[in-house]
Amino acid sequence: MKLNSADILEAMTRAEKEAGGIMLRARGIVGENKTSARDPVTQYDREVQRMLTERLTAAVPDAAFCCEESRENGNLEAEHVFVIDPIDGTMNFLRHMNRSAVSIAYLHRGETVCGAVYNPYLDEMYTALRGEGAFLNGNRIHTEDRPISETVICCGTAPYYSELAEKTFRMMEAAFRAGLDIRREGSAALDLCSVAAGRAGGFFELRLSLWDWAAAALLVREAGGCIGTAQGMELPLDGSKSSVFAGGKQVYEELLALAAGTGADA
Questions:
Q1: Are the C-beta atoms of 206 and 243 separated by less than 8 Å?
Q2: CA end-to-end span of the chain
């Protein structure tokens, strides 16, 4: 029987729960440098990714995969594609900070149809089906409808790209002065989920990969929010890196204005 999108989302959440169990039981975590000391990978990233691809291949046998810990990735133009970050927030995971997540998006013919992000430390499962809303543990969630002056902003520092530090910190200062406060917690997927759930008003980071935001972007949109690049353009689903700005409609527009004013959109 052909799986529909709800069946695929269920397979995704089951696999993420299993992955969360692996993370919670992890002992003797060893970090290796990928591109630098700021970009680690652990044996558990690879174990989780291997398990996820096995489970999802069983659910959708002809699917292609785009995964963070793969040397080669599948065709993003394939009919069925899973975009996977096995452990988003690897540095947090390595340092036992309990702020990491499993993130999976399902793309059908170039459109994101399902997204799921799981935080095993709080047992929080964020899910979205295109056109059907966003949910946290089965309860519908919504972005905040407030201006930036009445909320907090999550951000990332693009630590792998030191050339962006000056722009990033100008943008952080501008967001700090415009809003109530800023948060930098080390998992873009979870920060975007905080936006979707109305816990934070907005989020920005000046360079991220597809697997960092693919699932959570759908959650933000389905929760009533806006998400795009620092220039207000659509996020690229072709695998290229990009800036990511998100928020409720008011905050999103204000963040884009701050980006233009600080040069973070250049």
A1: yes
A2: 49
Same domain, 20 and 136: yes
| Residue whose structure tokens are 């309990």 | 98
The model's pTM is: 0.96
User: Same domain for 122 and 201?
Assistant: no
Say whether 64 sits in a helix, a strand or coil: strand
76-130 confidence digits (pLDDT tens): 989 999 999 999 999 999 999 999 999 999 999 999 999 999 999 999 999 999 9
User: Coil, strand or helix: which one is 256?
Assistant: helix
Residues 67 and 177 in one domain: no
- Quick check: 22 and 51 in contact, CB under 8 A? yes
Residues 6+ apart with CB under 8 A from 28: none
Angle at 13 between CA 20 and CA 28, to 5 degrees: 15
| Spatial CA neighbour of 98 closest among 191, 183, 23 | 23
Q: How far is CA 137 from the centre of its chain?
A: 17
> Which residues fall within 8 angstroms of residue 252, CB to CB, at 6 or more apart?
202, 225, 226, 227, 228, 245, 246
Alpha-carbon torsion angle 38, 177, 198, 142, nearest 10: -110
Strands annotated E in 34-144: 40-42, 64-67, 80-88, 101-108, 111-119, 124-129, 134-136, 139-140
Do 67 and 16 lie in one domain? The reply is yes
Same structural domain for residues 165 and 219? yes
Is residue 55 a contact partner of residue 11, using CB atoms and an 8 Å limit?
Answer: yes
Looking at residue 120, which CATH number applies to its domain?
A: 3.30.540.10
What total number of domains does the chain contain?
2
Residues above pLDDT 90, as percent of the chain: 91
* Domain coverage including residue 43: 5-140
On the question of pLDDT at 5 being above 50, the answer is yes
